[in-house]
Design a protein that fits this description.
elongated; two-stranded antiparallel ribbon; three-stranded antiparallel beta sheet; mainly alpha
């Protein structure tokens, strides 16, 4: 600690010796600087500052239903416009027109924004008081006039675009109107609902018929000949050897239009019943006659002939059922095509409606 203090004292003595020896150098330097400042102050032209404030509102653009305001880019554009040479020239020209005897002077413009506001602070600096103030007024007035001119140009462009769009829409509307008239001429609009309802009713009829044919085809594919006859009797009749009546449903009830096609099945049913009656009669006669009795032999011959006849009718019935299945399959295919065709027509009518 003592060493540092000793070194400081030694350095202080050295600076003091140097200052005593060369004191005249700082004195001359300060004197020269003061002289220059005094001379410049005496010969410097006066400078006047004129200031003003303006409020800048944002530029609104319509985008659908939203309004969007631009801030940064818009204010920067306004700063550049205020300090542009175009505005300055217009301000000078205005001053010259109003005060032709004034001598133009150079005026500097500075524009700053008051933080967190849309207020702008304008400062004009010039060497002549009245001219500087008039220049600032001229800049603000010419800035607003230039903005109005630019807005008017944009408005003219917008009006032109709107007129063009209106003309285009009128052409499209005329074309749509002509198309509507052509459609009305080609299609009788008064009958469209009736046609649509008729098409729907016809489709329902076809679909019901198709469902019935598919049901009958499934029945014919599943059941045997005797089962079909047992399920749907051709004619009501008593069961041989029994006292009850079987159902009175007709085979033709599957499709009345094909009732005549089931003739062999009626004959088969009758022949089968005849065989059963003959066999029942033989059993009854065997109670009193022997198998070798001529009456029994005659019945046996009748039974053989009846069985052959029944087999013949059975084969014919099988062929009838086969033909019936083929006919149903063809009708199902035809109905499906019709349903597809009329479905397309109904869809077209619905679209027209």
């Amino acid at each position: 600690m003592m060493d540092l203090w000793a070194k400081a004292r030694v350095m202080g003595r050295r600076y003091l010796v140097v200052f005593r020896k060369y004191w005249w150098i700082p004195a001359i330097t300060v004197g020269i600087g003061l002289s220059i400042s005094i001379w410049r102050g005496a010969h410097l032209a006066p400078s006047y500052v004129s200031s003003a404030q303006m409020v800048i509102t944002g530029q609104f653009q319509i985008e659908g239903t939203a309004r969007v305001t631009e801030t940064g880019d818009y204010l920067g554009t306004q700063f550049a416009l205020m300090t542009s040479e175009q505005v300055a020239q217009r301000a000078r020209a205005k001053i010259q027109a109003q005060h032709p005897d004034w001598i133009p002077v150079q005026v500097g413009m500075e524009v700053t924004q008051i933080p967190r506001t849309t207020f702008l602070l304008l400062r004009a600096t010039g060497g002549e008081k009245l001219y500087t103030q008039a220049f600032l007024d001229g800049v603000m007035q010419e800035y607003m006039a230039l903005k109005k001119e630019m807005r008017a140009e944009k408005s003219d462009d917008m009006n032109s675009a709107i007129r063009n769009q209106q003309i285009l829409l009128e052409k499209e509307t005329d074309a749509d109107q002509r198309e509507l008239i052509n459609f009305q001429e080609k299609n009788n609009l008064g009958f469209l609902p009736t046609q649509f309802n008729s098409a729907g009713d016809f489709l329902s009829t076809l679909e019901r018929e198709l469902a019935g044919l598919k049901t009958e085809l499934n029945l014919l594919n599943v059941l045997k000949l005797d089962q079909i006859i047992d399920q749907t009797q051709m004619t009501p009749r008593a069961t041989v050897g029994g006292g009850g009546q079987q159902g009175d449903r007709s085979m033709a009830s599957l499709d009345p239009s094909f009732a005549n096609s089931y003739g062999p099945m009626t004959d088969y049913q009758r022949a089968k019943g005849n065989v059963l009656e003959l066999k029942a009669k033989r059993e009854e006669l065997l109670k009193t006659w022997t198998p070798s009795h001529p009456g029994i032999r005659a019945i046996d011959e009748d039974i053989v002939r009846a069985e052959k006849q029944m087999e013949n009718y059975q084969q014919q019935s099988v062929d009838v059922l086969k033909m019936r299945k083929e006919s149903i399959q063809y009708r199902i295919q035809n109905l499906e095509n019709l349903i597809k065709e009329w479905g397309t027509k109904a869809t077209d009518l619905s679209q027209k409606l």
